[in-house]
Amino acid sequence: MKYIYATIVLTILVMCNGGNRTTETAKTTKQQSVAEKSEAIPVADWVKVKCEHLCDDEKGKFPSRETLKEHLGDEFYDLVKREQNDSIFIAFNFIKDCCMDFTGTASIREDTLLLTFLPAIDSSRCDCLCDYRMHYRINKKGEKWSVIKPVYKTRSL
Question: Are strands 147-152 and 112-119 parallel, antiparallel or unpaired?
Fold first, then answer.
């Protein structure tokens, strides 16, 4: 009887906390998942993409009020381009819901390099805002663009 009562209580607690990511187990699992996904992912033989979380909910590090006031609603901000050897490194920041993971692709349309970023397939959301930084490493061979344009896409269900 004790086991049945304990199982029912545990089930109710788990169900009540299911959407809340404040449990240590959920945080640890999420951090491991983010660490695994934060490696640069080749999306073609000429580009690699990585998403960096600039927030840390355990340490209470979130975008400042000034950053939110200035950039909330912007598709992206702080675009940086750097060339090194045979590669071009492009990074930009954006603000979205916390706890998300992002992936990206790159394509060329006419004279524009489109850097598309979107939520990863298994990405979930938390009830706070976080800033992220997308990193693209692009092989310069065959560079045929003069404009760089980051594009955010939502993932359809």
Answer: parallel
The predicted model scores a pTM of 0.68
Q: Which residue has the tokens 């997308």?
A: 134
Question: Does the pLDDT value for residue 60 go beyond 70?
Answer: yes
> Which one-letter amino acid corresponds to residue 9?
V
Cα dihedral: 39, 33, 101, 52 (round 10): -40
Residues 6+ apart with CB under 8 A from 47: 105, 106, 136, 137, 138, 139
Q: Which of 112, 116, 108, 120 minimizes the C-alpha distance to 155?
A: 120
CA distance 141 to 155: 31
Domain boundaries, the chain: 1-37, 40-152
Number of Cβ within a 10 Å radius of residue 15: 9
